[in-house]
């Protein structure tokens, strides 16, 4: 062992130490945050599918189910998204009071502190359901239960802090927000200029050691109504009151918003969404050190704390909202396509409509599968950092595509705003999800593969830690052990990738999963190809790979597809291999395989070391990118899932908010059921070449009762197709004097002529 280390490993170790790029403290802390999970199996190139299938499903307790079917349904009934947007610009006051009283802000807070003590999956289900009724309400509820003071206090707070603040957060006496983003530093939080200077000061009549804070934050959800602000800032100790270090680093503290010097700004209006959001400032705000979350010993540890909390939060909040949006789009768009006729037939019969509708259906299937799998990890106490990044990015991006498709199929119905438009506000809200909790461009190009390659790789992190060890001999020994394991692993992956690629995955290991078994074989094949190409890119580019953002993004896309497709397979298995859902699974697989093959081809075409690229192509893609995507048969079957009332449709769109009112969604649901129920009647009339139901009754084609049933269906469809219109004075104050737009313009013309 010593001969190998001193003869072969030592020069490699010396070379690697010289080329290893310096890592900032924020990068190191971000890498250390959270856990690895199924992503690590995918990075091995040989995932153990039995491990995936043995993961317990995320489920609700009886208490959580009762809350979902009780208080959540009650809250949804209080909400009218059009009035929230157009009239109130806020949630109604009774909804605010109900949210506080029923402890929606304390879902994740343990019962011992007065919260509900719900699981991450229950949190996700609540957000998901509310999202299908009101985006403003969903964001209001999800933020206090995601990244914020409550989560940070539970994980890092002192016992005294928990006992003081958590009960107040749980019952709504305090409304929390969290201030991270500043004008100078958006995604680059390390560049924030907000400061906290350790000094002596007077607080509540006594002199204590504390922090004098100055900050400017913006885009802060719940900021305008918050009573307790979680604040991220850079702490400094110029007088060495707590230690020898002057620059302590990013720190997080609790700031009651009634303290002198705190200024709450006016509201932002994010993409015309009216959830509470706005800027705030602090000018020479003094707090004692025990307001630092975790106390004095947590000074300078804020970035790691935030990244750890974010590893959980990003896997719940926005993925829940996005999965809800896709499921809602599938249910509403399928129903609308079924009842809407053009050229005398349902538009659902047009292949041009079937294609985007199938994409919506499969997206809804896959996003909810991935949401449930991620929640299963969180329920088990795992905080998968890389997977949370995958979920945030791909859930919001795929929701964007699904909502765009829904808008296209609905046409003018979704374009004309008003109380009956059940899809337009969701379309307006999409950019919010794309931007917040880590912008998608940054997440795709830098984080998923950049963090995943180090954290999820079997040996890379051990090698990096060995190279960074200040004790050279200890580092060399550790590097020798990890490096040669890495070499052996790479050769295994090379032969595995070669065999699986040339045989099209025919002999790759796969569980007995019925009709889905071939999909596991293909994922094993692509996992080996990904692992080999990633190793070769890291070997040939080293630290420079961090600057090759387009290459990194393509690797991240492959890793993301491997995870999302794994989730879809597990969902199909967990739900009992439902044959009616298989088309959605097939669509996901065909589309995902196509993406993986395209990204592999793009990586090989752009890898700087062309010799390595040519060799890799012969190994992992000898016949080129061959997958074309879903067939027309799959598209037709997939779209059909939401075109008729069925158990498959209900499985795809469970637990949406159903309020029996006169809203556009409720009208659509009623019309869809009536049209489906009268389908056989309508077919008899068409066969008899009769269009009017009264004539059909006279001719004996249908009965009087059937005719009346058909008339009810036609009336219901007309009520759905109808769009809103407004009196001019209802839209603009300039018409309110006369109340007559024609008179207004006539008077305006006369005034101009006179002048």
Automatic annotation (TrEMBL):
Span of domain Acyl-CoA dehydrogenase/oxidase C-terminal: 300-447
Catalytic reactions of this protein: a medium-chain 2,3-saturated fatty acyl-CoA + oxidized [electron-transfer flavoprotein] + H(+) = a medium-chain (2E)-enoyl-CoA + reduced [electron-transfer flavoprotein]; a long-chain 2,3-saturated fatty acyl-CoA + oxidized [electron-transfer flavoprotein] + H(+) = a long-chain (2E)-enoyl-CoA + reduced [electron-transfer flavoprotein]
Keyword Lipid metabolism: no
Keywords attached to this entry: FAD, Flavoprotein, Oxidoreductase
Cofactor or coenzyme needed: FAD
Enzyme Commission numbers on file: 1.3.8.7, 1.3.8.8
Domain annotation Acyl-CoA dehydrogenase/oxidase N-terminal: ranges: 79-172
Pathway stated in the Swiss-Prot or TrEMBL entry: Lipid metabolism; fatty acid beta-oxidation
Stretch forming the signal peptide: none
UniProt xrefs under NCBIfam families: PRK09463.1, PRK13026.1
Family recorded in the similarity comment: Belongs to the acyl-CoA dehydrogenase family.
Protein name per UniProt: Acyl-coenzyme A dehydrogenase
Protein's organism: Bradyrhizobium zhengyangense
């Amino acid at each position: 062992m010593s001969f190998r280390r001193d003869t072969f490993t030592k020069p490699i170790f010396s070379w690697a130490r010289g080329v290893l790029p310096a890592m900032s403290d924020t990068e190191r802390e971000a890498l250390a945050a959270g856990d690895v999970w199924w992503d690590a199996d995918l990075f091995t190139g040989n995932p153990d599918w039995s491990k995936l299938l043995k993961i317990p499903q995320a489920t609700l307790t009886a208490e959580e189910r009762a809350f979902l079917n009780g208080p959540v349904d009650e809250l949804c009934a209080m909400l009218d998204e059009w009035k929230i947007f157009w009239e109130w610009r806020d949630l109604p006051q009774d909804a605010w009071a109900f949210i506080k009283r029923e402890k929606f802000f304390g879902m994740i807070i343990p019962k011992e502190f007065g919260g509900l003590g719900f699981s991450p999956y229950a949190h996700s289900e609540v957000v998901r359901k509310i999202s299908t009724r009101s985006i403003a309400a969903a964001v209001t509820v999800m933020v206090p239960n995601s990244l914020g003071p409550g989560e940070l206090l539970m994980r890092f707070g002192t016992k005294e802090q928990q006992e003081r603040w958590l009960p107040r957060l749980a019952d709504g006496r305090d409304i929390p927000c969290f201030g991270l983003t500043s004008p100078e530093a958006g995604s680059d939080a390390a560049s924030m200029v907000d400061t906290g200077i350790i000094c002596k000061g007077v607080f509540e009549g006594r002199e204590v050691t504390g922090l004098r804070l100055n900050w400017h934050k913006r885009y802060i959800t719940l900021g305008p109504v918050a009573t307790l602000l979680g604040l991220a800032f850079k702490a400094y100790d110029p007088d060495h009151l707590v230690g020898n270090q002057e620059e302590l680093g990013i720190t997080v503290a609790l700031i009651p918003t009634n303290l002198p010097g705190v200024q709450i700004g006016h509201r932002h209006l994010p993409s015309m969404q009216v959830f509470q959001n706005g800027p705030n400032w602090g000018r020479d705000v003094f707090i004692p050190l025990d307001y630092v979350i975790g106390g004095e010993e947590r000074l300078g540890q804020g970035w790691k704390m935030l990244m750890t909390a974010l590893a959980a939060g990003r896997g719940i909040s926005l993925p829940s909202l996005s999965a809800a949006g896709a499921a809602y789009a599938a249910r509403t768009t399928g129903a609308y396509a079924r009842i809407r006729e053009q050229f005398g037939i349902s538009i659902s019969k047009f292949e041009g409509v079937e294609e985007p509708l199938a994409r919506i259906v499969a997206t809804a299937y896959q996003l909810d599968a991935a949401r449930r799998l991620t929640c299963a990890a969180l329920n088990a106490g795992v905080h998968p950092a890389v997977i949370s990044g995958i979920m945030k990015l791909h859930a919001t991006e795929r929701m964007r595509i699904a909502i765009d498709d829904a808008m296209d199929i609905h046409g003018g119905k979704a374009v004309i705003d008003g109380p009956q438009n059940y899809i337009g506000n969701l379309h307006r809200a999409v950019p919010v999800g794309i931007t917040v909790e880590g912008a998608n461009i940054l997440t795709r190009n830098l984080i998923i593969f950049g963090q995943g390659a180090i954290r999820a790789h079997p040996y890379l992190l051990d090698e990096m830690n060995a190279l960074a060890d200040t004790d050279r001999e200890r580092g060399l020994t550790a590097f020798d052990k990890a490096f040669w394991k890495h070499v052996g692993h790479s050769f295994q992956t090379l032969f595995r990738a070669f065999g699986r690629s040339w045989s099209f995955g025919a002999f790759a290991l796969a569980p007995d999963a019925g009709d889905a078994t071939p999909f596991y074989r293909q994922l094993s094949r692509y996992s080996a190809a990904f692992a080999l190409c990633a190793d070769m890119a890291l070997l040939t580019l080293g630290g420079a790979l961090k600057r090759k953002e387009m290459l990194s993004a393509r690797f991240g896309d492959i890793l993301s597809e491997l995870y999302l497709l794994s989730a879809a397979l597990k969902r199909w298995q967990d739900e009992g291999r439902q044959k009616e859902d298989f088309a959605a699974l097939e669509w996901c697989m065909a589309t995902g395989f196509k993406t993986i093959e395209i990204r592999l081809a793009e990586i090989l075409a752009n890898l700087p070391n062309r010799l390595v690229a040519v060799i890799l192509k012969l190994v992992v893609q000898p016949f080129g990118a061959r997958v074309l995507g879903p067939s027309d048969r799959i598209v037709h079957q997939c779209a059909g899932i939401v075109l008729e009332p069925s158990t498959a449709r209900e499985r795809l769109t469970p637990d949406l908010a159903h309020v029996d009112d006169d809203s556009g969604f409720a009208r659509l649901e009623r019309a869809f059921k009536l049209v489906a129920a009268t389908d056989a009647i309508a077919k008899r009339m068409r066969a008899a070449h009769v269009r009017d139901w009264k004539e059909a009754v006279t001719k004996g084609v249908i009965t009087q009762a059937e005719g009346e049933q058909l008339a009810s269906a036609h009336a219901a469809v007309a009520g759905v197709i109808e769009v809103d219109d407004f009196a001019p004075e209802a839209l603009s104050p300039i018409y309110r004097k006369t109340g007559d737009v024609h008179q207004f313009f006539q008077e305006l013309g006369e005034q101009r002529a006179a002048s």
